[in-house]
Design a protein that fits this description.
The complex is a heterodimer of chains A (206) and B (246). Chain A contains seven helices and six strands. Chain A has 206 residues and is an alpha+beta fold. The chains are: A alpha+beta (206), B alpha/beta (246). The complex binds iron/sulfur cluster (2 copies).
Chain lengths: 206, 246
């Protein structure tokens, strides 16, 4: 089974927000909730770099470890998903996540946040694949349709790559060789560990 | 090398050959390639190739520098003055030199160059983009990019509202984005906004349901007089301005 991963190439990203918009449209994500966003470092000075950030579907996911109701699970493809029916909106995962991925629809009184929402790697949720309920809660399930994430597909510079981690790594390695710079991949160490990440056992929970 | 493939190479003079070696239509400094293709073989350039041709019926046969009507450099106006006024251009009287001369010293009052342009995620005037919630969310307010030095001189801090005034007499209210992306003599405002008029949100005047989700000041409220001498395209890309804390 492929191990799905994201990679954003800071040498290429032009901060167009195409990925952000593709995600919003594909899943009809409400105003104020951003499953993906583009972060720019050194904005407006030489050396400016942008990267597109969302849930990285980490190998050893901190959200999974801290969730008090254990609502997270991992698919055969290594995608980290969660069950909104179990989620109590406590916000622990938000503090645990190194990428700021978990989003909450409201910040109400008494710390009431609503059900957490985050990037699903376009793989839906625990409901039946491509069902109405799944779409309402988690958005479209593109992986089950044999498609890759909408954000990466949309990226016009192909800065954002999403798919089989080995293929993604090969594409990136070739790029780095050709251009001779930009070999550090932002976030990969944090998300997938140093060196070659071992494929997560199917259905494993940490 | 196309000329060699076509068998036209030997129509170049010896001197031309020396300069044209390894070059093409755009890069040959001798002009020989253009001469052979056009004069000897009746080729007619189109697209970008035209930029290398003499356009005999344009006021400037080849493009040359002319200072804009509103310039921060009176000395450059002396050196590179604009065209004479035209009595009928596409049937309309159109002013050039008289406006430039009248505003020669206007930069004392409006010392900053104001240029307008595009945000990569926005479309055209922005009406479509700002009416679509998925896109409108990305940039919810109009802004002016201003250099830290210029901002400091005016006591303006990042994120504060400022008034931008121009020689047209208009004043627009936008948020300051203090950044080194622009130099200390230049400001930038994106042109994708509308729905505000000189500091006021015009929401009440839109027919019900027709207002874009986010609104802001349109930069062209403040841009100044000026037209292209050939196409009559209006000059909305650059002018002068002053910025003050709102
Ligand atoms: S993989 Fe899908 S859900 Fe995740 S950021 Fe991309 S488009 Fe959004
Ligand atoms: S679509 Fe690609 S280039 Fe544009 S912001 Fe996203 S990652 Fe960067």
């Amino acid at each position: 089974m492929a191990r799905m991963k994201f990679l954003c190439d800071a040498e290429r990203c032009i901060e167009c927000n195409g990925c952000v918009t593709a995600c919003k449209q594909e899943h009809e994500v409400p105003w104020g909730v951003n499953r993906r966003r583009v972060v720019t470092i050194n904005d407006g000075v030489p050396g400016e770099k942008s990267i597109s950030v969302a849930c990285m579907h980490c190998s050893d996911a901190p959200c999974m470890a801290v969730c008090p109701v254990d609502c997270f699970y991992r698919t055969e493809d290594g995608v980290v998903l969660h069950d909104k029916d179990l989620c109590i909106g406590c916000g622990y995962c938000f503090y645990a996540c190194p990428f700021g991925a978990p989003q909450f629809p409201q910040a109400g009184a008494f710390g009431l946040r609503g059900k957490m929402d985050k990037c699903t790697f376009c793989a839906g949720g625990p409901e039946k694949d491509r069902s109405e309920e799944e779409f309402k809660k988690y958005g479209r399930n593109r992986l089950s349709e044999g498609k890759l994430p909408a954000c990466a597909e949309m990226c016009s510079t192909k800065a954002l790559l999403g798919g089989d981690g080995d293929v993604v790594a090969d594409i990136y390695r070739e790029r780095v060789l050709k251009r001779g710079k930009g070999s550090e991949v932002w976030g990969w160490g944090t998300a997938y560990g140093q060196g070659k990440p071992a494929a997560a056992p199917a259905g494993a929970k940490s | 090398m196309l000329l060699k493939k076509l068998g036209w190479w030997d129509e170049l003079s010896e001197e031309e050959k020396k300069e044209a070696e390894g070059k093409n239509w755009k890069t040959d400094p001798s002009g020989g390639i253009i001469r052979v293709a056009m004069k000897n073989h009746g080729c007619h350039p189109f697209g970008n190739a035209k930029a290398r041709a003499v356009v005999w019926n344009f006021p400037d046969g080849v493009p040359q520098h002319r200072e804009p009507l509103f310039s921060p450099r009176p000395d450059m106006i002396e050196k590179y003055p604009t065209h004479d006024d035209v009595k009928t251009m596409w049937r309309l009287p159109t002013m050039f030199k008289s406006v430039q001369q009248k505003n020669k010293d206007v930069s004392k009052q409006f010392p900053l160059v104001l240029t307008s342009g595009r945000l990569v995620e926005y479309e055209g005037g922005g009406e479509e983009t700002r009416s679509n919630p998925w896109l409108a969310e990305l940039q919810q307010e109009n802004f002016i990019e201003i250099n830290p030095r210029a901002a400091n001189d005016r006591g303006v801090r990042n994120g504060e509202y400022v008034w931008v005034s121009t020689p047209s007499g208009a004043r627009i209210k936008v948020k300051a984005l203090v950044t080194e992306r622009v130099d200390s003599g230049t400001c930038f405002i994106p042109f994708h906004f509308s729905g505000w008029w000189q500091g006021q949100d015009m929401l009440a005047f839109y027919p019900e349901g027709a207002a874009p989700i986010v609104r802001g000041e349109a930069v062209n409220t403040a841009t100044t007089y000026g037209y292209d001498r050939v196409t009559m395209m209006q000059e909305t890309k650059t002018t002068l301005c002053q910025v003050a804390k709102a």
